[in-house]
Design brief:
By secondary structure, this protein is an alpha/beta fold. It is built from nine helices and eight strands. It has one domain: Arginase, Chain A, CATH 3.40.800.10. Helix 5 links the parallel strand 4 and strand 5. The chain starts with 35 loop residues before the first strand and ends in an 8-residue tail after the last helix.
C-alpha cells in the first residue's frame, strides 16, 4: 500500500459527499512534503467577453469527484509515486487585476521555494503571466506548450497591457519563455488582420492551427514537440476554449471548429517524458454550461496532465 495521499474512494464514501478538493485529495497548507500542489486561481477580471471563470476552480473540483486514481488507458498511477494535495485557492483581489497579478506572482514565488510542481485551475488566462514570471525566476526561460483557440499576443486591450489576451506577448518580451520552443496548438477563429497570429511566428513561436488538425490524431504532433523540447524545463498551459464548443461550451471566448476531446487526450499523453515544471488549465466558465460538462472535461484534462508529470510510474 502506497504511503502517498490517495483520493477518497467512491466505495468508501459516496462521490457526491466528502471534501470539495481536487479528486477529493487531502487539503493542506504545508508544502514541505508535496511533489505536486493543486491550487485554484478564481479570477475573471482579465476577460474581454464572457465572465464566470471565477467559479472555475470550485466547479472543476466538484466534477473531479468522479475521477478514479488509475489511468486505464496509459497505466499511469500518479498517486503511487507523487505526493499530491490541494492547497486551496489563492487570495486574489477581486476588484483589481493588477493587484491580483502581484498576488499570484508572490504566491508562486513562495510555493516554488519548495521542490514542487504547481498545477493551477483557472480562472481566466491572465493568471499565466504572473505564474510564468515566478517559474522563470526559478527555472529560467521555459519551453511552452500552449493549447488555445487564441494566440493571446495582443499588445494592449482597452489600453491595458496585462489581460487574458496579452499574456504571451508579455512573456516573450520579458524573456520568460524560449520563443523558439513555444508551441501554440488549436488556433482558429476570426481576427483583425493576419498579424493576429503571424507576428508571433516572427518571434519563433511554432503554430498549429485547428483547421490543419481536423480529422487527425495528435499523437504524432505531441511526440514531435516532445522530441524538439528535449529535457528543457517546460510549462504547459491549457485553455479549455481550445476544444470545440460542442465539447466545452462553458468558456469565455468560444470559437467553433476546435479540437475534440480525444485529440486533447492524445496530445497530452504524447507529451509524457517532458520535464514539466508547472501547468495550468484555464477559462472554464461554469455559468455558460449548466450541465457541468466543461468543468468535467477540464478536471479530466488536469488529471491527464498529472499522469505525465516527471516521476509518475506506470503499472
Amino acid at each position: 500500500m502506497s504511503d502517498k495521499n490517495q483520493p477518497i474512494s467512491g466505495n468508501e464514501l459516496a462521490r457526491f459527499s466528502g471534501p470539495n478538493t481536487f479528486m477529493r485529495l487531502p487539503s493542506t497548507s504545508t508544502l514541505d512534503w508535496l511533489d505536486v500542489a493543486v491550487l485554484g486561481v478564481p479570477v475573471d477580471i482579465g476577460t474581454s467577453w464572457r465572465s464566470g471563470t471565477r467559479f472555475g476552480p470550485k466547479q472543476i473540483r466538484a466534477e473531479s469527484a468522479m475521477i478514479r486514481p488509475y489511468n486505464m488507458a496509459t497505466g499511469a498511477a500518479p498517486f503511487e509515486s507523487l505526493q499530491v494535495a490541494d492547497v486551496g485557492d489563492l487570495a486574489i483581489n477581486t476588484f483589481s487585476l493588477s493587484d491580483t497579478i502581484r498576488v499570484i506572482a508572490e504566491s508562486y514565488e513562495s510555493i516554488l521555494t519548495h521542490d514542487i510542481i504547481p498545477m493551477a485551475m483557472g480562472g481566466d488566462h491572465s493568471i499565466t503571466l504572473p505564474i510564468l514570471r515566478a517559474i522563470a525566476e526559478k527555472h529560467g526561460p521555459v519551453a511552452l506548450v500552449h493549447v488555445d483557440a487564441h494566440a493571446d499576443v495582443n499588445d494592449e486591450m482597452f489600453g491595458e497591457r496585462e489581460t487574458h489576451g496579452t499574456v504571451f506577448r508579455r512573456a516573450h518580451e520579458e524573456g520568460l519563455i524560449q520563443s523558439d520552443k513555444t508551441y501554440q496548438i488549436g488556433l482558429r477563429g476570426t481576427g483583425y488582420a493576419a498579424t493576429d497570429f503571424t507576428e508571433a511566428q516572427e518571434w519563433g513561436f511554432q503554430q498549429f492551427p485547428a483547421h490543419d488538425l481536423w480529422h487527425r490524431s495528435l499523437s504524432q504532433l505531441g511526440a514531435e514537440i516532445r522530441r524538439d523540447i528535449g529535457d528543457r524545463p517546460t510549462y504547459v498551459t491549457y485553455d479549455i476554449d481550445s476544444l470545440d464548443p460542442a465539447y466545452a461550451p462553458g468558456t469565455g471566448t468560444p470559437e467553433i471548429g476546435g479540437l475534440t476531446t480525444p485529440q486533447a487526450l492524445e496530445l497530452i499523453r504524447a507529451l509524457k517524458g517532458l520535464n514539466i515544471v508547472g501547468c495550468d488549465l484555464v477559462e472554464v466558465s461554469p455559468p455558460y454550461d449548466p450541465s457541468g460538462n466543461t468543468a468535467l472535461t477540464g478536471a479530466n484534462l488536469l488529471y491527464e496532465l498529472l499522469c505525465i508529470l516527471p516521476g509518475v510510474i506506470e503499472r
